[in-house]
Design a protein that fits this description.
Elements (H helix, E strand, L loop, with lengths): L2 H57 L5 H15 L10 H10 L5 H5 L3 H32 L10
Amino acid sequence: MDITVILLAAAILAIAGLSAWAIKLWIEVFRNRASIRKSNEQHRQFLCSSLTILARSLVHEQVNPTEGCIRIKTILDMLDPALGKTEEYQVFTTIYDATTHMPIGEARKTLKLSERNRLDTERELLEQHHQERIKQAAQALLTQFNPDSIFKEA
């Protein structure tokens, strides 16, 4: 057998093997992309569901208004940062921005009682001032992200 034929056969086998491997890798890429899309959609559905729960809790006064606003603003930012900037939902960002200087958790516990009371009064005044806007925005969220439509939006 001629050396040229042997080399040509080896090259064809190498090309065929590499082609099969490339096809296998592309199939994996497509599967991974589908898996990532599915995971992203599940995460989005979870965020939308969390929004409706928090909004309903705000409307029914089952959660502290400041805490609800902070959580909603954070979720809106994860879904679409532009949402928190809309006039309809701006109050969540307003409350968030106005309370970022207030310590929470263990840091709050270390404050002197007078400082804690001062911050509580500041927060309560802020909540009272924005009470209607908070409820309106929460109601708007319930309309936009209602259980019948949250899983249909892309």
